[in-house]
Specification:
seven-stranded mixed β-sheet, 401 residues, 13 helices, binds MU-OXO-diiron
Length: 401
């Protein structure tokens, strides 16, 4: 049985959600599931914007056939060739003999890499700014390379002013019946997953996101239809503001997030004392994460949110504790920059993690490390407590700037 929603009288959401998948990209936990959005435009010609992941292909086909109501599918616009959106291409080519695939040259290269299907006479290659008239609707194509794959393009429907934005402006999270941003409390229920989605999947490509936003800035946009998560039609400025901060690596909030690793609880104890001292000095909404038990994608999302980071790590095999090292490598890989960082190291005989964490932060852009770097020798003692108090004052001063 079909499960669709109408964007308006002629454009339909024909995607679906997967609440069974544990790890998106076999990497990111998605306890709230994920949606794969696809949109079908009914006009003199019919056009489908992207397909879906193979996990929901049966639902997807039922949705398409219901909306088409006996008509053929004329065009499939492929905005993005990652398999969570392109799994249905071959099946649709078999089912609709007149169907043409619309994409750019890079799209076609990727299709041929992923599939062995015969595409002779079945493709329409478009260039930047090309248009495809469907009748009363007209599609215009804007390329958004490396947001976050090279072939990515966005499709703008000119008569209804709808932007089909590919992965951009998407979020983890299954759709629970509500499709539009004004049907749900995004800031309460969705923003953490949207931030985690952006920061981990698109985060590395901030300059490319900026370029795409600049390119689209002259367009009047009534609706943004991403490939995952809710459709935006009411509070688009809220979303654009988030994307501006994230893509410029500007923190959303002046806030402190503490990330610690602790083998036997002594580094954790120092962190708790530090957080309490900050709170007594008036700092609110402090976040504390154990990097061993918190998925690194959540840690990364918090880095994108917060202005001030505290990293506390034991020394392990003369290096940084593995979970903290992995977190720092991920920060660098995702192009994290422009944060203020306080460091706490621990080492029972040769503490080195502070120096090593600083060296990794120095490889990132505009990361300011506060003085002093606190050194614990096994556990917090009077001398290290004094350093911790100094570090608290540095952090408070920086927060006040
Ligand atoms: Fe949702 Fe880049 O695929």
């Amino acid at each position: 049985m079909h499960c669709t929603r109408k964007l308006n009288d002629t454009i339909h959401w024909v995607g679906g959600s997967d609440r069974r998948l544990a790890l998106f990209e076999n990497l990111f936990p998605i306890p709230r599931g994920v949606s794969y959005n696809s949109y079908l435009i009914m006009d003199e010609k019919t056009a489908l914007i992207d397909t879906v992941d193979s996990s929901i292909s049966r639902q997807f086909l039922e949705n398409i056939y219901h909306v088409l109501d006996g008509r053929p599918l004329d065009f499939l616009i492929v905005n993005h060739m990652e398999p969570d959106h392109c799994a249905g291409i071959e099946e649709l080519l078999y089912r609709f003999p007149g169907l043409k695939i619309v994409g750019n040259t890079k799209t076609l290269t990727l299709i041929r890499q992923f599939y062995d299907m015969d595409l002779d006479g079945r493709t329409l290659i478009v260039a930047e700014n090309d248009v495809l008239p469907l009748g009363s609707h007209t599609l215009r194509f804007y390329f958004a390379p490396m947001v976050h794959w090279p072939e990515v393009m966005m499709t703008y429907e000119e008569s209804e002013k709808i932007l089909f934005s590919a992965d951009a402006f998407g979020s983890f999270g299954a759709l629970n019946g509500n499709l539009f941003d004004d049907e749900l409390d995004f800031d309460r229920d969705w923003i953490a997953d949207a931030r985690r989605y952006y920061s981990n999947i698109v985060g590395k490509y901030g300059p490319q996101v900026q370029a795409a936003m600049k390119k689209l800035s002259g367009l009047e946009i009534a609706m943004i239809c991403p490939l995952h998560g809710p459709v935006w039609r009411s509070n688009i400025p809220y979303l654009l503001d988030k994307y501006t901060h994230w893509s410029k690596y500007e923190p959303e909030e002046k806030a402190v997030a503490i990330f610690y690793a602790s083998m036997y609880g002594d580094t954790e104890n120092a962190v708790n004392i530090f957080a309490g001292a900050l709170a007594e000095s008036g700092v609110k909404n402090i976040s504390v994460y154990d990097v061993s038990s918190t998925h690194v994608s959540t840690l990364i999302a918090e880095v994108f949110r917060c202005s001030h980071l505290v990293l506390a790590s034991p020394t392990y095999n003369n290096g940084i504790y593995p979970a903290m090292l992995n977190f720092l490598h991920d920060m660098k890989a995702l192009n994290v920059q422009n944060r203020t960082v306080a460091l706490i190291e621990n080492g029972s005989w040769a503490p080195a993690s502070g120096k090593l964490m600083r060296a990794l932060l120095d490889e990132m852009k505009q990361m300011q490390v506060l003085d002093p770097v606190v050194t614990l020798k096994s556990a917090l003692k009077e001398d290290s407590a004094a350093q911790l108090a100094e570090l608290k004052d540095s952090l408070l001063q920086s927060l006040a700037e």
